[in-house]
Amino acid sequence: MSAQVPSDAELLQAQADLWRHSLLYLTPMALRCAVELGIPKAIYNLGGGATAAELITALSLPPSKLPFLRRLLQLLAASGVFTADDATYRINAVSYLLLDGVPGDDRHIDHTAFVLTATSARYMDAAMDLAGWFKKDVAASPFEALNGATLFHESMESLDADFHGAAKAALEAHDNLGIEIAMREFRDLFEGIESTTYICGYGDDKFARVLVKAFPHIRCTVLSYPNMIDAATKKAAGGVINYVEGDMFSSIPPSQTVVLKLILHHWPDEDCVKILYQCRKAIPPRKDGGKVLIGDIVIDYSDSKTMLETHLLMDVGMMTMTKGRQRDENEWRQIFMKAGFSDYKILKKFGARGVFETINNPGKSSTNLFADKSHTTLHNRSTSYHGAPTTMSAEANTLPVPSDAELLQAQADLWRHSLCYLTPMALRCAVELGIPTAIYNLGGGATAAELITALSLPSSKLPFLRRLLRLLAASGVFTADATTYRINAVSYLLVDGVADDDRHINHKAFVLTATSTRYMDAAMGLAGWFKKDVAAPAFEDVHGATLLHESMESLDADFHGAAKAALEAHDNLGIEIAMREFRDLFEGIESMTYCCGAYGDDKFARVLVKAFPHVRCTVLAYPNMIDAATKQAAGGVINYVEGDMFSFIPPSQTVVLKLILHHWTDEDCVKILSECRKAIPPRKDGGKVLIGDIVIDYSDSKTMLETHLLIDVGMMTMTKGRQRDENEWRQIFMKAGFSDYKILKKFGARAVPSDAELLQAQADLWRHSLSYLTAMSLRCAVEMGIRTAIYNLGGAATPAELITALSLPSSKLPFLRRLLRLLAASGVFTADDDAATTTTYRISPVSYLLVDGNAIGGGDARHINHASLVLTAASARSVDAAMGLAGWFRKDAAAPPFDELHGATFFHESMARLDAGFHGMANEALATHDNLGNEISLTYCCGAACGDDTFARAIVAAFPHIRCTVLAYPNMIDAATKQVVGGVINYVEGDLLSFIPPAQTVMLKLVLHHWTDEDCVKILSQCRKAIPSRKDGGKVLIGDIVIDYSGSKAMLETNLLMDIGMMTMTRGRQRDENEWRKIFIDYKILKKFGARGVFEVD
C-alpha cells in the first residue's frame, strides 16, 4: 500500500473536516427553519435588526425556545445568512432575498420558495438515494426514480401539487433575479439588436417583458410550450411581444438573436445540441448579426472555492433531480461546436452565471468547427454595477438596498446555502459505494474510470461519477490532480480498516447516521418545532423516541446501533494522541474518576491506564452500560462503579468529563459539576476537573466556527444539549461553585488535547456531514417568514423581536438565536460582531431576495422573491433524490436520480401530475432563479419547459428599440401575459431544439444548464441558424453559471452545489469554462453576473 498515512495532526484535522462534511446539511436545514418561521421578515419589520428575544416575541414563539433560537441565529450568522453585532441579528444581502417584497427595489425577488424547495423532503430523499442510483443502469434521475414523477413536470404536479408549485416558484426566483440589472449591464449589446426570440424553457416571459420595456425598438418573440404563459400575461404585454407556442426542439421563431436564459442546464448535452441547432436555424448569418445569447452557469475551476463549490453543488443537485447539468467552458464549447456554431464568447460573468454569445457562420463545415485560440476572447470578469437604488422608499424602513453586485452575489450565496446539503449527500453516496476504500486499495489514487471498474458500476455512470468526485474534491473530501482523485486525511477516516495505525477509527457510521432520514426528518421539522411550546427536541417530537436511548432501540434497532457506532467514532478518535499531548499533565495525577456519561464507553480509561500505569482509575457508568467481558479484559486495573453522575461521583484527585457536558442543558451541567466538586480535594491538594469539550470561538477560522455552529444546531435538533462559547462555559463553572478555570489547549475541534490536522479533519467531517442543516435552516427561516419580518422591522431585528413579530412561542427564543447565528455565519443574514445575547440580525442581499414582494412593494424592479427557490431546493422530493445518489450511481440509467426516484421529470408535466404543489413551487423557483437581473436581451428562449418571459419583458422595457421574440414551449406563456406585453414582444411557440426564430441575437438566459451537452449543442445549433453572420452582428448571448475554480470559495461552493443539485434532479449540469468551451466554437465571457457568466458565442 503506497497511500500516504496521515500524521497525527492530519488525522485529527481530518476528523474535524469529516464532521463538517457530514453535518453541513444543517446549514440549509437551519435556513429552512428561519424561512418557515419568518425570521427575515420579522427582523426587517423590526427595523432590520433584532435580538433573539425580540424575535421570540415578534414570531410568537415559546419563551423556552429562546436559547435554541440564539443558537440557530448564531449558526446562520456565522454562515452569512444574517449579520450580527452584539446580540442583534441583522438583514444582510442573503436574508434580503428572503423578505416578502422590498419597497423601492424592483430587482428584489423573494427567494423563500427556493429555500423551502431546496431543503424539502423530496429533494432530501432523492439525494439520499444517490448511491443506489449509481448502481442502477437507469435513465431516470434519482428524483424521478424515487418519486415516479419529473421535477417541474405535470407528473409531479399530479403527485404533489404543493411541492410542484413551490418548485416552480423557486425556479422563478432563481431565474429572474438580476433581469433588471442585466438591462443596464448589457445596454450596448441590446441597443444593437433589432429582433430577438426569447425561449422560455421551464421559465416565464419576464425577461422578454423587461427587455421590450427597456428597449422598445426590439421586436421580441417569446417561444413557450403550449399553455405555459397564460392569456392574462400575454395581454399585459400589450401586443409588444409576439407569443409563439411551440417546442424549442422542433422549431424556434426566426429573429436576429435567440436568447436562452437558464435553459440549457436543464438538459443533457444531446438535447442542448438539438436546441442550439434550432437556434442556429432561427438566426441569420453572422454577417447579418445573427447570434444566440445564452445565460447559464459556467463552472470555472479558477473561481473562488466558494463559487466553485456552489456550481458543483448545483450540478450534483441537477444530477439528482433532473437530467440536466452544469458545465464548464470546455463542455459548453463542445455543445456549441456540435450544434454547428463557428465561434462563441463569454460576454460577462453575471452572478454565478455566464452570458455566452454564439455566432452563426454557416460557411464553415461541421468538421471544422473548433475555435482557434487566437479567436477566443475572455473579457474582464470584474463587474461594475451602477444605477441601482441605494435606499428603500418605504416610510418606516431605512434599510439600505443592496447594490446590483451585492444582490447578484447574494443570490449565489442563497443557492449555496439552500443546496449545501448535497455535499453530505454526495459524501454519503461515496461512503455507500465504498469509494474511499476503493481509492485506498488502488494505491491511494484513482481515476473515475478506474473506480467504475473497481466498484462494478455501470459504465454509463462514468460522467456522473466524475461530477460527484469533483464536488467532493472541491469540498476537501479528496484531493485531485488532473483526472486522479486521491485519499487525503478526511477520506482516510472513511477507509475500511487501515493496517498498522492504531489511531484509525472508521467514521462510516458517523456519516451514515448524520445523513440518515431520521436526522433529516427532524431537521425538516424545525420550523414546526419552533412554533410549539414543547420541551422535547425536534428529533424526539418527530419520532416519539430519544436519540441514543432505549426508546429508540425499541423503535429502530438498526438506526440505534448505527447512532451508537457513530458516537463511538466521534468521541474516541484522538485518545492515543491525547496521551502524548498531555503526558506532563497525566504523569502528575495519582487517581482519576472517568465518567462515561449516559452514552459513552470506557476506552479513554483503558488507554490511560495502559499509558500511565501509576494512575488509580475508577470508571463511573450507568448500570449494565459496560458488559462483564469488557470489565474482565481490563484485568482488574480499573475499578468499575455503577451509578448516576447526577447523584454521586466516586472521590479522586481528578474527575474527567470527556465530551459529556454538551449532551446536557445548562441546569444539568451545573448539577453534574456540583457533584464533581464534591468528589475532588481542594486546589492546594491537586483537586481538579478535566473537561474535554467543544468551545465555540468567534475569532476562529470561518470553517471551524461554522463546524461548531453546525454541531450546535444538530444537537439542538436531536437532543437537549448544546455547544457553548467560553463565556457560556464560564457561567456554568461559576454557578457550580468553581472559582477559576483555564483552557489548556485546543484539541482539534475541542478545547483540550490536539494533534492539529487530524482533529481539524474531524471538524471538517462534521461540517461536511451536517451541511444540509444550512439549507434546512434557510428553509425554516423562509417558512417562518424571518427574512420579511427583519425587513419589516427596518432591516434588522433581534431574536426577541422576531419572536414577537412572527408570533412564535417565547420558549423558542434561545433556539431561534442558534438558528439565526448559523444563517448569519452562512451569509443569509448579517449579524453584529459580538455574539452576546442581544445580537441583531440584519437583512443581507441574500435575505433581501427572500423578502415578500408585498413588503418591498414596487420600489425595486430587480427584486424577485426567491422563497420558492429555497423551498424547492430543500424540499422532500429534492432531498429524497439527493439521498438516493449512491443507488442511482449503481444503476446504468440515463434518467437523473430525481426522475428515477419519483417517476416524474423535474419541471415536467409528469411532475405536475404527480405533485402539483411541488411542480408549481419548482416552476416559481425557476422563474426567480432565472429572472433576477433580467434587464437584458433579444430573441429570448424560455428554455427548459419551465422558464418564463420575464427577461424578454425586462429587455423591451429597458430597450424599446429592440424587436424581441420570445420562443417558448406551447402553452408555456399564457395569453394574459402576452396581452400584458401589448404586442411589443413576438411570442412564438416551439421547441428550441428544433427551431429558433431568426434574430440578430439569440439570448439563452439560464437555459443551457438544464440540458445535457448534446442537447446544448442542438440548441446552439438552432441558435446559430437563427442569427446572421458575425459581420452582420449575429451572436448568441448566454447567461449561465460558469464554474470558476479560481474564484472565491463561497462562489465555487455555490456553483458546485447547484451542479450536484442538477445532477440529482435533472439531466442538466453546471459547467466550467472548459466545459462550456467544448460546446462552443469561439466565445468570450463578457462579464461575471452574480453567480453567472455572460457569454457571447460565435
Report on the structure:
With 1098 residues, the protein is an alpha/beta fold. The chain folds into 4 domains: 8-101 and 421-479 and 770-851, no CATH class; 108-173 and 854-924, no CATH class; 195-298 and 325-387 and 933-1037 and 1070-1097, no CATH class; 570-754, Vaccinia Virus protein VP39 (Rossmann fold, 3-Layer(aba) Sandwich), CATH 3.40.50. Helices cover 46% and strands 20% of the residues. The strands form 11 sheets. Strands 10, 12, 14, 16, 17, 18, 19, 43, 44, 46, 47 and 48 form a 12-stranded mixed sheet that branches. Strands 23, 24, 25, 26, 27, 28, 29 and 30 form an 8-stranded mixed sheet that branches. A hairpin with a 2-residue loop joins β21 (478-481) and β22. α11 packs parallel to α50, α12 crosses α51 and α17 runs parallel beside α54. The chain is elongated and about 90 Å long. The relative contact order is 0.37. Mean pLDDT is 79; it is low at 361-396, 750-766 and 934-938.
